[in-house]
Amino acid sequence: MTEPVRRRGRPPRARQDAGPGMRERILDAAREDFAERGYDKASVRGIAKAAGVDSALVHHYFGTKEQVFAAAIEVALAPALKAPDALEDGPLEGVGERMTRFFFGVWEAPATRAPLLAIVRSALNNEVAAGVFRKLVATQLLARIAQRLDLPEGEAELRASLAAAQLVGTAMIRYVVRAEPLASADLEWIIGRLAPVVQGHLTGP
Amino acid sequence: MTEPVRRRGRPPRARQDAGPGMRERILDAAREDFAERGYDKASVRGIAKAAGVDSALVHHYFGTKEQVFAAAIEVALAPALKAPDALEDGPLEGVGERMTRFFFGVWEAPATRAPLLAIVRSALNNEVAAGVFRKLVATQLLARIAQRLDLPEGEAELRASLAAAQLVGTAMIRYVVRAEPLASADLEWIIGRLAPVVQGHLTGP
């Protein structure tokens, strides 16, 4: 009730010492700044301002702009990074459908779609952002899926990448470019068509 | 030999009356400007300057910035828009491989990859650019592929879109984000894995 309207300029000292929750507040501000302005134009100063703290505090918690970005996209990607769990939630022959359903569940939810869009756009537009994205996807997603597949290591990651390509390409067309007829196609129809493709990539001959 | 070094500022009158080839010169400049600066920052003035002509001449040939962009991406997409021909170059059961091969041929050639990258980036970042891209892909690509498939009209375009999603997603990962292991995977291996997937989308049950 007595929370003051957010003002421009240096925030009152008290807010800087908020302690717990501070990290999350900076990450929220970072995600918004990267989403709205893109990686190139986003700045530690702008993020600090939006979070109502000193730039020094942002540097203290995270380091450089690249490190703030890495932390922000790790949080934003967190729901998507749970995808490998779909491999363990049931028999291997149902993994195509479970993973496809999981993937679109993340994209269809407004709360997770916006941060994902921001990350994808950044990764497509900036080399540093692309590097952070690549590393996270390789270590947290592909490697974890690959090690659960009964395939030679090199082939498992390649196959997981092609499955990801089918899903990511569909998401680009449906949610980012919003091209018809995919943009308003029935989700269950899409899942029905893609589940066997993902299954084939992961476990087919 | 006597061609003067290109200078900043208004070009000599003679170059403005070059006549034939002028349209192409403006389109080249436009493609470069959109590629380097993105749709938002590109301007008719900058394009005119790079082409060595008056802004009025750019407006005369093409109209608004949006219309210059539409013309430039139509030229840049021209190689990709020949994809529907792959449907007629042989029997329907080989279309998956022909289309996959054609698609990667366009992306692997440096001369066609750079303009494609520029368009894709613009379409992912700007709503006007996305609209131009959507319209071109819908009318020049999906509709033309769909009408050659032996499927109900609505389903044909949806299926063509899912085939496109598999190919476009792979291109995003391999050429735009350049994530391993797809970025340096053997092209023939990729084509061998994707051809049946594209075939299945276009002609499968």
UniProtKB/TrEMBL annotation, chains A, B:
PROSITE patterns: HTH_TETR_2 (PS50977)
Domain called HTH tetR-type: residue spans: 20-80
Keywords assigned: DNA-binding
Start and end residues of each stretch annotated as Disordered: 1-21
Cross-referenced InterPro entries: Homeodomain-like_sf, HTH-type_TetR-like_transc_reg, HTH_TetR, Tet_transcr_reg_TetR-rel_C_sf, TetR_C_16
Gene3D superfamilies: Homeodomain-like (1.10.10.60), Tetracycline Repressor, domain 2 (1.10.357.10)
Presence of keyword Repeat: no
Residues within the DNA-binding region(s): 43-62
Pfam families linked to this entry: TetR_C_16 (PF17920), TetR_N (PF00440)
PANTHER family: HTH-TYPE TRANSCRIPTIONAL REGULATOR RUTR, TRANSCRIPTIONAL REGULATORY PROTEIN
Name of this protein: TetR family transcriptional regulator
